[in-house]
Amino acid sequence: MLRDLIGVIGPGQSGRIRAHLLAVVCHAVAQGVVFILLVPLLQALLSGEPERALLWLVPLAVAAVVTGVAYFVQALLGFRTAVAATGALYRRLGDHLGDLPLGWFASVKLGSLTRLATAGVGEVTVVFAHLLGPLVTAVVTPMTVLIGMVVFDWRLAVAMLATVPMLVLAYRRSTRTIAETDADVDAAVGRSNDQIIEFAQRQPVLRAFPGGRERAALLEKTIEAQHEAGRRQLRRNSLARGLFGAAVQLAVTFVLAVGAFLAVAGTADVAQLIAVAVLVVRFAEPVMAMGDLGGSLRTVRARLDQVREILDVDPLPEPSAPRRPQGNGIEFSDVRFQYEGAAGPQLDGVDLELPPNGVTALVGPSGSGKTTMTRLVARFWDVDSGAVRIGGVDVRDLSADDRAALVAPVFQNVYLFDGTIEDNVRLGKPDATAEELAWAARLARMDEILGRLPDGWATRVGEGGAALSGGERQRVSLARAILKDAPVMVLDEATAALDAVNEAAVTETVRALAGRRTVLVIAHQLATVMNADRIVVLQDGRVRESGTHAELMALDGLYFQFWEERDRVRNWRLRSAQR
Ligand SMILES: Nc1ncnc2c1ncn2[C@@H]1O[C@H](COP(=O)(O)OP(=O)(O)OP(=O)(O)O)[C@@H](O)[C@H]1O
Ligand SMILES: [Mg+2]
């Protein structure tokens, strides 16, 4: 396990860990020597030879001092190692999370990740502060005593050795039980954590729909299950600990009985027996301690596995020799992509070239893969086959910094950070001047919002932007993308929540911006789409039609049907309103 631990924490700490381990072993051996020296000392005292006892007192005192010093050193090293290892593990996890494909975060349960990233790391590194010492002592001290025993009375040593298999068996059995119940509790806690977070975040939906009551009942059931798992853990773990305790007592009794038998038979003296009795009881102490440590050790193991599971997720491979993009064209060439666990491919051989410094509009029915295409441009995931290129370079060959600098996205689900409007817009360009901010705000039609809100730029948006309306959120995120001034702009339904006047204005802005940028717009509104340099119709993960508005209307295909259908619905609505 220690090797796993070093593997997870990183090789940087292995020297420190080795030093700690050495101190721990020194302490355990010294303690064993102290125990064993009690035998000749007591023997000498009890058989009325105080001078000989004095003689034994010297090595005993030395061993005791060594034990004390070693204890202090190992405790100090243990805490230092724990602190260093905690830091190292946090850094490693943080770095790793930073390199994971963005898509991974969509699949992970927030509750479990939060728990691991906060308490979990501490639960792993506590090994060094509180577990390694007692554990090594529990094994090495009795072993030292056993070896020493051979010198004083080999028969008692054999008796001690004979109890080892029973102890090992009992230990295994009890830790297995504890491990099972602990794992149950852990899973139950994880489940209720996830559900509580979901329950809190989804309140608006839950309150508005009749199914909400069922979700609440489900949550209650999960929490009840967690309690039940906790109760079961208490019951079964006490039993398991009791079992191991009983085994240790049995072993002690057995060794004492053998000693008594030898004394009665006259082959061992009483003084020796008393000395051995003291020894055996002390021998039992660290072994007993091991029973309690088993559970903690299991927790560590479980956490370690969880940490490893995250560390094992492959980060997006970064290119060893990144290439610089030439120009700002975007190109999809025979791109195939399927989400993990999806039934069929979401993109099924997409070939598409977006003219540099032009507006390309992507239209198509819901679920046809439009958003997926934008995600592949931003490299949320890697394509299964084919390639997405920006400026002629495969996005997989771009450095992470270049990739981030190239694309300014406005995603379909706008997310704002809990801060002021200015914080959120500035994210696009942290060192932007006041003029630049004003420029971006004007182009995104945000100035109207700023004038209306009493605190203007300093208005707080709330978690996720909850204090703003959908259209306001969209314009803040648009301003952020405009301010970034990147060569590629991707707008996924960026105007869907805007009224007609604002939508027209933003569409105008997008056109103007396109002079220096390649723009990819996804929209369901004709007004936004119509004037694009190129319109691409996507259906079932394939490009079905592509051309200008006039060309596609003349084609009398999918695009034509799409708008005709829409017109028909609109006319029908108008007519029914007039009636
Ligand atoms: N994270 C995901 N995991 C699995 N499947 C997904 C995931 N995201 C989207 N999908 C599926 O991929 C398909 C394409 O989704 P995508 O979001 O690209 O559609 P879209 O064209 O943007 O639709 P809309 O117009 O509704 O936004 C859908 O069938 C969807 O269910
Ligand atoms: Mg979409």
From TrEMBL:
Signal peptide: none annotated. Coiled coil: none annotated. Residues 330-565 form the ABC transporter domain. Residues 21-299 form the ABC transmembrane type-1 domain. It holds the Pfam family ABC_membrane. Gene3D superfamilies: ABC transporter type 1, transmembrane domain (1.20.1560.10), P-loop containing nucleotide triphosphate hydrolases (3.40.50.300). It is a multi-pass membrane protein. Belongs to the ABC transporter superfamily. Siderophore-Fe(3+) uptake transporter (SIUT) (TC 3.A.1.21) family. It is found in: Cell inner membrane. Keywords: ATP-binding, Cell inner membrane, Cell membrane, Membrane, Nucleotide-binding, Transmembrane, Transmembrane helix, Transport. It comes from Lentzea flaviverrucosa. One of its GO terms (cellular component) is plasma membrane. It comes from the Bacteria. The chain crosses the membrane at residues 21-42, 54-73, 124-148, 154-171, 242-264. GO terms for molecular function: ABC-type transporter activity; ATP binding; ATP hydrolysis activity; ATPase-coupled lipid transmembrane transporter activity. This is ATP-binding cassette, subfamily B. Its main location: membrane. The lineage of its organism: Bacteria, Bacillati, Actinomycetota, Actinomycetes, Pseudonocardiales.
